[in-house]
From TrEMBL:
This is ABC-2 type transport system permease protein. Keywords: Membrane, Transmembrane, Transmembrane helix. It comes from the Bacteria. The keyword Transmembrane helix applies. The keyword Cell inner membrane does not apply. The chain crosses the membrane at residues 21-49, 55-74, 114-134, 146-172, 200-223, 229-247. PANTHER family: INTEGRAL MEMBRANE TRANSPORT PROTEIN, SLR0610 PROTEIN-RELATED.
């Protein structure tokens, strides 16, 4: 029932946003330009200097595509979780509290829109990378369902990180800078192999903010056949644990929320 209600609210929110078609098309085009330019800068550097610590351009392209799609799914299905601060500051969260649906469900379905640019570019990057890696025999067709599994678990992990960060707003209220660290900065870092970073940063991206499990850890098995299948099982376990902890943190924070009318 909750899933059906969630999908109905998502569709209603998307229909309302599609009323402004020019704004939708323009924002999609701008997002495409930004992401294309970001990846082209990385590609040009790697084409000039070759492999970086043993990672090829196509392997980095694969990592980039996986986290781009995972993030796009998270932001499509739970857009305003990332924007909880404005609800806390303006008091608009009060309106969600009186709705006959769970607060988180109501928040997740506000201002929903499908991120076509990010999903499309991620799929293109994955197609290019996997075709090249298959042609050299590095991976086989079994990598396709494993990649789908990676994207799904990755979206759950990114949602959990976003939800936990948002929930901290019940105590801090202003969380923009914290989100810059836990979401924006870590997402950018995880586009590249974690082996490029110092040990302390690798640990932070695997333990404190586990974005390394979105693409890097499972990719070690899918692309390089390292560590065995436990790499994927561990990734699924991390996604489940992260989601459970984030939900608990959210419920604790929501119970402490002071309405603007109180």
């Amino acid at each position: 029932m909750s899933v059906k209600l969630f999908m109905l609210l998502i569709k209603a929110s998307m229909r309302s946003r599609m009323q402004y078609k020019f704004n939708f098309l323009f924002s999609t085009a701008m997002a495409s330009c930004v992401h294309i330019s970001e990846f082209l800068m990385v590609a040009l550097v790697m084409m000039r200097f070759g492999n970086i610590k043993g990672w090829t351009l196509y392997e980095v392209c694969y990592l980039y595509g996986v986290i781009m799609i995972s993030k796009a799914i998270y932001r499509t299905l739970a857009s305003d979780v990332h924007h909880l601060e404005k609800y806390l500051v303006s008091g608009d969260l009060d309106a969600l509290l009186i709705r006959p649906v769970p607060v988180l469900l109501a928040l997740m379905t506000q201002n929903s829109r499908v991120l076509f640019a990010e999903i499309g570019q991620g799929l293109i990057l994955l197609a290019i990378a996997m075709k090249a890696l298959m042609s050299t025999g590095q991976i086989g067709w079994s990598a396709v369902p494993l990649t789908v599994l990676m994207i799904g678990s990755g979206a759950v992990i990114l949602f959990a990180i976003g939800l936990a960060t948002a929930a901290s707003g019940f105590w801090l209220t202003r969380i923009e800078y914290l989100q810059n660290m836990t979401e924006d900065a870590t997402h950018t870092a995880a586009r590249y192999p974690l082996s490029l970073y110092p040990k302390w940063l690798q640990g932070a991206l695997l333990v404190l903010v586990p974005v390394g499990f979105v693409n890097y850890i499972p990719a070690l098995y899918v692309l390089r056949h390292q560590g065995g299948a436990w790499m994927l099982l561990g990734t699924i376990a991390v996604s489940c644990a992260a989601l459970w902890l984030a939900m608990r943190f959210w419920k604790t924070g929501l119970s402490r929320y002071q309405s603007t009318g109180s």
